[in-house]
Amino acid sequence: MAGTRSPHVKLPPFQLLLDRHSGELFRFLSASVGPVDAEDAFQETFLSALRAYPKLRDASNLRAWLFQIAHRKALDVHRVRGRNPIPVDQVPEVAVVAGGEAEPALWRAVRRLPNKQRTAVFLRFAADLDYALIGEALSCSEPAARQNVRAGLATIRKGWADG
Amino acid sequence: MDRAQADRLVDVAYTETDSPVGRLLVAVTDRGLVRVSFPRERRERVLEELAERLSPRVLEAPRRLDQVRRELDQYFLGERTEFELPLDWSLTSTPFRRKVLERTAQVPYGATISYRDAAEAAGNERAVRAAGTALGTNPIPIVVPCHRVLRTGGALGGYGGGLDAKRFLLDLELGRSTVTGE
């Protein structure tokens, strides 16, 4: 046990991370892949994080690290769907509410965005991450993160205007 | 979730369990019971210590503590006088402390020894104060029964769970416990 631990990095007990962030991670995944697949994507995220946790070299931003993993798991879901296309609109929409917000239609629009834009928009407005952290979660620069949010919003606005 | 997969990734599993001496936090590793803590120790602090000293993969996993909880329940009902739990001594950092605690683990239910006896068993009868420290930092109280160690002459001495808890446990073992441990 613990043979893989990195020295000099003080990591909090994993359970405390989970207590703090599982709600927002789940909301992120619901928004990103829809409620049907969110459960599995969440478990995948949880297992990946748990597996990699003791080897982490940098504990300064665990929240961004968790979102980075969740983002990758969401991409996996979208990739599988790309191979076996299921029109998003046929997914039962009853519970499609990402975190209980009042406007499921808006979140459906968010879900149709390209991967990076979708994650960036969600992290900015639903998880309230700043651009530096969004950059970390997406493995891109802060300006690129800002640009993804801006482009995502523009697409949504356009879709809204087009009705 | 793939539970088996998750279980293999959990290095320290813990849960909380009610007892007459308060809500206890109990933790196990693959090797055995590694920690029992009383409510007066803050839960977060205890978990942080486990993360720092053993592994950060600390997760609440009640099923892995079924046997521990069962044996503790039986003990508090007066139905169990010996624990059969494997122990993990990883949190006991020095050989001296380990000897003191191992000696303590052999004190039978309902019996007591003195701090001096414990020190002597660890090879240095003059190290009474150090024996006190070893007992005071016992990571597995109740199961490693440091409550059975008293001052010479029978005074209670100290206890990590508070003296009321120590008195309660001693009374329980002498068959004169009252219903609650308040």
The radius of gyration over CA of chain A amounts to 16 Å
Shape of chain A: globular
Helical region count of chain B? Answer: 7
**Ends apart, CA distance between termini of chain B:** 40 Å
* Uncertain stretches of 5 or more adjacent residues of chain B: none
Measured as a percent range, the helix fraction of chain A is 55-70%
Helix-and-strand structural type of chain B: alpha/beta
Strand order of the largest sheet of chain B: 3-2-1-4
Sheet of most strands of chain B: 4 strands, mixed
How many structural units, i.e. domains of chain B? 2
The overall average pLDDT of chain B, rounded, is 91
**What composes the largest sheet of chain A?**
none
Q: Mean pLDDT score of chain A, rounded?
A: 83
Output the structural class of chain A. Answer: mainly alpha
What is the fold named in CATH at topology level of chain A?
Answer: Butyryl-CoA Dehydrogenase, subunit A, domain 3
Number of DSSP-assigned strands of chain B: 6
Summarize this structure as a short list of keywords or feature phrases.
heterodimer, A: 163 residues, Butyryl-CoA Dehydrogenase, subunit A, domain 3, globular, B: 182 residues, alpha/beta, Double Stranded RNA Binding Domain, Arc Repressor Mutant, subunit A, two-stranded parallel sheet, 37% helix
Layout of helices and strands:
The complex is a heterodimer of chains A (163) and B (182).
Chain A: H1 14-33, H2 35-52, H3 62-83, H4 104-111, H5 115-125, H6 131-138, H7 142-162
Helix pairs in contact in A: 1-2, 1-3, 2-3, 3-6, 5-6, 5-7, 6-7
Chain B: H1 3-9, E1 12-17, E2 24-28, E3 33-37, H2 43-53, E4 58-60, H3 66-76, H4 95-105, E5 113-114, H5 115-121, H6 128-136, E6 149-150, H7 163-173
Parallel strand pairs in B: 1-4, 5-6
Antiparallel strand pairs in B: 1-2, 2-3
Helix pairs in contact in B: 4-6, 5-6
